[in-house]
Specification:
Elements (H helix, E strand, L loop, with lengths): L2 H16 L2 H12 L11 H15 L2 E5 L6 H4 L10 E6 L7 E7 L17 E3 L2 E3 L3 H20 L7 E7 L10 H6 L7 E4 L7 E6 L1 E10 L3 E2 L9 H21 L6 E3 L7 E10 L6 E2 L2 E10 L5 H18 L4 E10 L2 E2 L5 H13 L5 E5 L5 H5 L4 E4 L14 E3 H19 L1
Helix pairs in contact: 1-5, 1-11, 2-5, 5-11, 9-11
The structure holds zinc ion (ZN).
């Protein structure tokens, strides 16, 4: 295709999206009005039917996928109810590859807090749309769907194929979420943008890692009237927690990452204690012989899981050596390595250039403190970044909203990135 041809299709597609702002707002309103709180996973069927019909009408080939009913008990947690679906919209080019996939989850957290309006009754006020999931992440889905529609309607000649994929069970993860459907091979992309809210002038190029587990202090039980006869595991834990605060955490604080972070103060490793606290809980008149406190240790990209686990173990070993009466155990229950996509990777360059052209400023590249499903693609060797509309800090809260102008800009960024990767 000549340069002239590709430029004219770019301006055609972008012009189409500029003219469809109202349709985009209506689409997002429709997505919010089908509540999909998880747990338990309500209305997944009507939601996916709506998305599938919309995509078909937009001119895409559509597939709806679900695990076999008999597999569900093994895949879902007890709080979950009903079937899990993934919807794929496909725009075929000359070849299957390169394939570019726009992906997002369609479940939301359950409504909580004091909503002034109906969380499932979307309202537009002053250029913002209020409703549950507007930021996390039905806004991203709506922008992606409109981008795919623009390419389909303008009948742009594509070299490779464009996929839109929406999947369940991100907010309250099960084994029937994105990982399941990737395992089944319903898409096989080379490039991915996950539309979680990053801010319109920011790309999440990576995320922190984590090591999660428990510290268990063992004491010696005694009657509460004779504490001198026992070793109080709770009191020993207080000393352990205090050492973590005064010795280990300051050490982590001095380890500043070279990357930019979102939020900014996340640019160093962190350790949070006490999300789960347990113990003997026998009676008030018992000296406890056991105290358990969970930990959540987040890694910057410069750290490795092996180093961090070794640091934890040797820190707690040292404490034991200094106190004959202290007996403790560290149990790691899960872990995930940090992940960063190189800034000079093709996906990062193409999306960055599109943002620079369409959002009026070159984007920041940040590592996110929280985790996204993007990592599931990166683990499979796919180039994937996180970029989507939404308002910082309002996800999962009453009054969740998104900015209408940003929905249009992100839809245009998705479309332009698709054209540059595929046309
Ligand atoms: Zn989300």
């Amino acid at each position: 295709m000549s340069d002239l041809g590709s430029y004219s299709s770019e301006s055609d597609v972008l012009g189409y999206l500029d003219g469809r702002r109202d349709e985009l707002v209506r689409l997002l309103s429709d997505l919010i009005a089908i509540p999909t709180p998880n747990p338990p996973g309500d209305n997944y069927k009507p939601f996916c039917d709506f998305v599938a019909d919309w995509l078909r009408e937009a001119g895409l080939e559509v597939g709806v996928h679900a695990p076999p009913e008999e597999a569900l008990p093994d895949l879902l947690r007890p709080e979950a109810e009903g079937q899990r679906y993934a919807v794929v919209g496909r725009l075929r080019g000359l070849a299957e590859h390169p394939a570019f996939c726009l992906q997002g989850h369609y479940d939301t957290v359950p409504a909580s807090g004091d909503w002034e309006s109906d969380p499932y009754g979307p309202q537009v006020v002053d250029g913002k749309l209020y409703g549950l999931g507007s930021t996390d992440m039905k806004g991203g889905l709506a922008s992606m769907m409109m981008a795919a529609k623009a390419l389909a309607q303008k009948k742009v000649a594509l070299r490779g194929s464009l996929h839109f994929l929406t999947t369940p069970d991100e907010e309250f993860p099960s084994r029937a979420g994105l990982a399941y459907f990737l395992e089944k091979g319903i898409v096989d992309p080379d490039y991915v943008v996950v539309g979680e809210p990053s801010g319109v002038r920011n790309i999440h190029i990576g995320m922190k890692g984590g090591v999660w587990g428990d510290v268990i202090v063992k004491g010696r039980a005694a009657h509460g009237s004779r504490p001198f006869a026992g070793v109080n595991a709770f009191e020993k834990m207080v000393e352990v927690a205090s050492a973590v605060r005064t010795d280990l955490i300051p050490r982590l604080d001095r380890r500043v990452s070279d990357y930019d972070f979102h939020p900014l103060q996340g640019n160093r490793p962190t350790l949070a204690l006490g999300g789960l606290v347990g113990g003997t809980n026998a009676s008030r008149a018992t000296v406890p012989d056991r105290c358990t406190v969970s930990f959540d240790r987040r890694l910057i990209p410069e750290e490795t899981l092996a180093e961090v686990e070794e640091e934890l173990v040797s820190f707690f070993d040292d404490l034991q050596r200094q106190d004959d009466e202290l007996s403790l155990e560290v149990k790691v229950s899960s872990k995930a390595p940090p992940m960063v996509v190189p800034a000079d990777s093709e996906i990062c360059r193409v999306v960055s250039d599109a943002i620079t052209e369409l959002a009026g400023a070159s984007p920041t590249h940040t590592v996110s403190c929280g985790g996204f499903e993007t990592v599931l693609f990166v683990d499979r060797g796919v180039q994937a970044v996180t970029y989507g509309p939404g308002v910082e800090g309002c996800a999962h809260t009453a009054g969740e909203h998104t900015i209408l102008d940003d929905l249009v800009v992100t839809a245009k960024v998705y479309a332009l990135a698709a054209l540059r990767l595929l046309a």
